[in-house]
Design goal:
heterodimer, A: alpha+beta, 51% helix, disordered N terminus, B: alpha+beta, 42% helix, lyase activity (chain A), lyase (chain A)
Chain lengths: 162, 377
Amino acid sequence: MTAHTANATATDQSQNTEEAIQARQRWMAVLARTERSVLETEWSNKYGDIIWNNLREPQIGMVMVRGRAGGAGQRFNLGEMTVTRCAVTLSDGTVGHSYIKGRDRVQAQYAALFDAVMLRDGAASDFIDTLAQQQAAAKRAHAHKVAATKVDFFTLVRGEDE
Amino acid sequence: MYVAVKGGERAINNAHRLLAEQRRGNKDIAEIETDQIEQQLSLSVTRVMAEGSLYDRDLAALAIKQARGDLIEAIFLMRAYRTTLPRFAFSKPIKTAEMDVSRRISATFKDLPGGQILGPTFDYTHRLLDFTLMANDEDPAEAPSGENPVDEHMPRVLDDILNYEGLIQDEPTPVDENAPVADLTREPIKFPAGRDLRLQNLSRGDEGFVLALGYSTQRGYANSHAFVGEIRYGTVSVEIEPEELGFAIDIGDIELTECETVNKFKGSKTKLPQFTRGYGLVFGQNERKSISMALVDRAMRANEMGEQIMGPAQDSEFVMEHSDNVQSTGFVEHIKLPHYVDFQGELELVRRMRAEVEARLSKRDADEAKSQSKAAE
């Protein structure tokens, strides 16, 4: 019985962990695509009182982007991209991380702060959802514009066969 | 003899001031902003990122402004900047199959699933100068939207359509996914070079050089007649797995152009004939470069395919040692820098040789004159 309970708990935990990781991956991806000014405004409006420290000052570096030959074969190094990373600690010890494309230290700072807030109590869930919706809408609008350039082939009947 | 040469400092400073003045041009005309370059000269930005081997649109725009539009100089600036940055990680291999396409065409299949998506292309324009742009009168209406969005996951022509019948070679996948990946930014190129190193070299190689070599393969300096199986241009997300997190995260999107060529088939009496592949992948929107890259990639697979080497594009050493425009510029242009001492040495050597020849000639003339006068006596 005890063993059974322990097993069940372990399974629940691993599911939770998996889900928690997926949720975190989602908001980190959304934050990486959000402009600095949007993050800055939201933070100063709602979270300005939060006490935090830099665990790692925003730092600019690079990631070597890898591709695959033929899209699916042997890996190769395509070229580098600039990336900024940051880590912050809230007063309760929650640590937030960010890795974002580009060289915007302020964006990386806020992305790490929102990561921490989301880890602590999910306080910015609505904000993240709104951003995710905006990003999806922009992507969809682009996909519609691109779709207008799709070729509609038609065949002319030349009437030679009677 | 050594002669210390000094005194260029003031001239150099003034030359750089003159350069700055000329870069700015006529001050009655508004200064160009890097944002404008980034937005409106986006294909220059793309080229500088690809050959500078650093994806950062703002930096590329700055480099173009600083270099007065000299793209190779701008590429040099990007390369120099990248040496100042630490490398945090390698990305997981990007998934071009999941690209959000802005363009996707095939020259081999007309009615392919997902369709022929033209996207923002110069193809089918008339190449007539548009003088409204000169009048700064451009205010294009918003591009129309289709009723349905393009498919999220476009099938791949080579893998999903051609390979369905086994008509094309499988992309050889190494068994060991943890095998090291060659990196020419960290180790000098060694020959024979693996395909990983060749692809990295081509992707950052000079567009003009790779284009010319690609063209040479079509004109008969390699035996690998190619079709464009598929070109796709769009955005893919980049994922890394930071150690401190222990799981993969998505750090943003980059633009890429990918080209896959379907080449001359290969087979034997016992093996079924199959088409072969060439691959091109480049930062940003750059179709010319990605097609050229795929042609040269295929040509450089000559040894692997047991083909006879009959053109420069098949010679990996020739291609890879001359494809880098920063390296080429460095060596070609360095001969304009002071070589006073070298040249002095050459000059003295030539003078000495001339003196020796002159001495020999005048001695011969004298001898001849002597023998003639003797004969006359």
